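Q: Got a minute? One more chain.
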Amino acid sequence: MQETFDITTLIFLALAVFVIWRLRSVLGQKTGHEKPPQDPFRRETSQARAPRPNGADNVVRLPGGPAAPGLSPADRWKGVVAAGATPETPQALDEIARQEPQFNGRDFIEGAKMAYEMIVTSFAAGDRKTLEGLLSPEVYEGFEQAIAEREGRGEKAETTFVAIDKTEITHAEVKGKSAQVTLRIVSELISVTRDAGGAVVEGSADQVVEVTDVWTFARTLGSRDPNWLLVATEAGQ
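A: Always. Here it is, folded:
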């Protein structure tokens, strides 16, 4: 009886060891050094980072690359800043990166593209809750008014994204802790508005149109809130 019990126990122990080994080989083993999922708009504050020796916290990093203090601001942000950007833009991005060393220009642009698509589609759908979390109070007020007027006429809007062809930073400025970054976004959309009877009153359900927008996002640097809010919009050329 004891011998049977011992053999059974050993068999189950062997199976348990095998299962644990397979799980570790497939899923990996936590070491305590894993990176959390990245939010493209999230910027860690300098206080959350361990201090670097010899004042290295003041070194500005390339957007997505290693530290390169020998480069000029224009070269440092090449590929991120538009050719016709305002002259002060590279220096302003340097200042953002100085205050928040985790700032990454290319990640910021990717986050802006995601926000652009969310805002445009949420506006078409009349999704006020989503818009409220992405817009400044002043911009939200304008969007909400346009949605209310559309609903009052019994109209419905439909927007389908085909592609975002180009997104580049055209202006940036920092005043104290307040930062603003303006982007020129060129996208291809299918946009149509229908009346209560389903008839098209604006746009086309079949035609792809190129749309150029100039949007400005703002954030208080060092804030616990990682979000950049849309604070201004205008049609581009």
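A: The chain has six helices and five strands.
Q: Perfect, thanks.
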